[in-house]
Structure formats: structure tokens, C-alpha cells
Amino acid sequence: MTKTIIVTGGAGFIGSNFIFYMIDKHPDYRFICLDKLTYAGNLSTLTPIMDKPNFRFVKADICDRTAVFNLFEEEKPDVVVNFAAESHVDRSIENPGVFLETNIMGTAVMMDACRKYGIERYHQVSTDEVYGDLPIDKPELLFTEMTPIHTSSPYSASKASADLLVLAYHRTFGVPITISRCSNNYGPYQFPEKLIPLMIANALNDKSLPVYGEGLNVRDWLYVDDHCKAIDLIIHNGRVGEVYNIGGHNEMRNIDIVKLICGALGKPESLITYVTDRKGHDMRYAIDPTKIHNELGWLPETNFADGIKLTIDWYVNNRPWWQEIISGDYQYYYERMYGNR
Ligand code: NAD
Ligand code: TYD
Predict the structure, then answer these.
(1) Is 128 a catalytic residue?
(2) Which conformational region is residue 273 in: left (phi greater than 0), alpha (psi within -120 to 50 degrees), or beta?
(3) Which ligand is nearest to the CA of 212?
(4) pLDDT (average), residues 12-31
(5) Would you say 123 and 182 are in contact if contact means Cβ atoms under 8 Å apart?
(6) Is the CB of 192 under 6 A from ligand 2?
């Protein structure tokens, strides 16, 4: 049966990959991308699908109640997948306010629209960062869906608040929701403020590679398509009211990733510069994805060796996409964040 799906934040990294994946997999569905086009949103990313008859782009803020309600009235969506968020931890340390506004208040507006107009499914794209961090010396510890919320940064606190609100709207008003908490994603179209694309872009430009602290922090990396596949499964087959963790058992230290990127691009490791650590820096993230595997049969399909090669090749072959970004306001950001670090 056909469906109309609103994808918020679809001009960003994961949202755009999700739309590409879904429009291919479900050509009979209609997709509406609602995006404010903040610094992280890039309309040019969506150029390949912009003229498709089953795709519509709407520039709007999820905090704008009138715009959101009008869109629901007009499109009568069956499903909403909420990717829209301020997503970068370092920016949340610099300026928490906009994180609270978009990530919490924006989610509240989306919830109210779902409640008013009725919905088959609202899916909240959350993060493993809501669980806080794990010690390095206890590799047996993993985040499960039962791990208590214990946030570190304004970013993770705002995402956790949104999760609690979404669960409250389910319990109190019966809104049919699901939530996914995924580990760190990598792949094409990721904004070059995040570790992997920043290091690739800097290495290609022979710029220094700023590693925070000693580079020993661990993240659990997942290729973006595997995240998109998991969300597709959850919105179709996931149980209403449930949280699903998504991760591929692929823990890596930051320094090892940066060295791997140097090697792949034939750049010297002498580009690596150790800089002042991030405030409140989470040590280790690691997901236990048993629930989504057992209930929905999800397993990651792209291993890290293949995924990082695909990603590096993409940045090498799509220089105009990221060069356009780093030639603009990004330079001020970079100077503020790394100038005297
Ligand atoms: P991103 O920063 O690349 O993209 C965010 C998108 O949301 C942009 O297109 C931006 O324009 C849009 N947006 C921001 N504020 C908005 C607003 N008020 N109204 C409408 N649109 C707005 O982020 P991403 O990395 O693609 O992350 C997407 C979602 O996935 C986020 O909710 C994030 O918390 C979550 N997540 C990300 C990762 C990761 O590794 N990147 C991992 C787990 C979960
Ligand atoms: P990031 O991509 O910002 O994701 P998150 O903080 O949400 O996990 O950072 C991933 C890891 O890389 C994190 O431990 C911080 C580190 N990092 C650096 O060492 N240098 C950098 O320039 C950036 C952006 C991140």
C-alpha cells in the first residue's frame, strides 16, 4: 500500500541518505522533505531527486507550528520520520540554546501535529549519546535499551529530552511512536565538521588533523545506509512505543581512524596535531543491537573496511560538494573552534 512520508531534516547527512534509500526501495511512496536549511542543510544534495513526481521539498522550521500544521493539513502524512536536529556536540558546547529550541521544542511541535492530525507512525531518530559513555577498560559493557539515560553534552541532553517527550506523548495521548538510538554514522554527504569528513577534507588539503586529547576515545561506527535500512524496518515492522538501538559492533579509537585516513590518502601522519580535549568528552560508545536483530532481523551489511573506502572515495570524487561548504561561513566556525586550540 502506498504511503505519504514526511522526512524532517532530509537535506542533512542521514536524512538525505534515507530519502535516497527509501525513494529507490519504495517508488510508490510519496516523500516530503521538510527542512529549515540551516548551515548543515544542503539543497544541492537533493538535486538528483528534486524533479521526481513523488518528491516534494518544503523549506520550513520544525519549531514553526503554523508551517508544520499547514503541511500536515495539506499532505495528511501516514508516517513522519524526524531527523531534523542540531547535531554537533562541539556547537552545543559553544551555544546550547538553539539545540534546546530545535531538538526539544521542534520535536514538541511535531508531536502536537501528529496528535492533532492522526498518524500511522511517528519515528524519532535519536542517538546512543543519550546513554552517556562507557569505560574503556570494561569492553564487555554495551548500551542496551534498558541502559539509563545519563547525558553529557547539551546536545545529548536535548536529544534525551526529546525522547522522553515522545514517550510521554505515546503514553498520555496514544501517539503511535517508535524511537531509534544509533551509534556514530559515516558515509557520503556528512558535513565536514564531524570527525571522518573533517579529517578527509583536511588531509586532502594538506591541513593539520586536529585530534582531541590523546585520540583514545572510542566510537562505534556504522555505515549510513545500514542506519537507513534499520529505520525502514522499524517504521514498517517495529512495535509501537518501543526503542531500538542500532549499531554494528564496530568500535574504533579516533586516532586509529585518523591514521587510517592518512594511509588511504597517502598523506603523512605528521599532519596529526593533538589539540585541547573537548569539554565533558564522552570516552566510549558501544551499542548492543540484539533487540533489533532478534525482532526485525536487522544486521549491518557494510563492514568498516568497505564503508570507509566508499566514504573516502566519495569525498575524493565530490570535491565541489564539500569545497563549497568549507569556503563559506565554515571558515569562521573553524577559526573559532580550532584557531587557538
Ligand atoms: P545534520 O546536522 O547533517 O542534518 C540536520 C538537518 O536538519 C539539516 O538538513 C538541517 O538543515 C535540518 N534542521 C536543523 N534544524 C532544523 C529545524 N529547526 N527545522 C527543520 N530542519 C532543521 O544531522 P545528521 O548527522 O544527518 O543527523 C540526523 C539525525 O540523526 C539527528 O537527529 C541526530 O541527532 C541523529 N543521529 C546522528 C548520528 C550521526 O552520527 N550523525 C548518529 C545517531 C543519531
Ligand atoms: P564527532 O564526529 O563530533 O561525533 P560525536 O562527538 O558525536 O561522537 O566526533 C567523533 C569523535 O572524534 C569524538 O570523540 C571527538 C573526536 N574529534 C576529534 O578528535 N577531532 C575533531 O576535529 C572532531 C570534529 C572530533
Answers:
(1) yes
(2) beta
(3) 2
(4) 98
(5) no
(6) no
- CB 158 near ligand 2, within 6 Å: no
Instruction: Decide: 34 in ligand 2 pocket, CB within 6 A.
Output: no
- Cα gap 197→188, rounded to integer Å: 9
Predicted pLDDT at 327: 94
CB 298 within 8 A of CB 233: yes
Share of the chain above pLDDT 90, in %: 99
Mean pLDDT of the chain: 98
Candidates 78, 86, 128, 220; catalytic one: 128
pLDDT at 287 (0 to 100): 98
**All structural domains of the chain with their residue ranges:** 4-338
Calculate how far, in angstroms, residue 41's C-alpha sits from the geometric centre of ligand 1: 8
**CATH architecture of residue range(s) 4-338:** 3-Layer(aba) Sandwich (3.40)
Nearest alpha-carbon partner for 221 in 247, 200, 244: 247
Question: Which among 8, 68, 81 has a CA at the least distance from the CA of 38?
Answer: 8
Residue 194 CA, ligand 2 centroid: distance in Å: 6
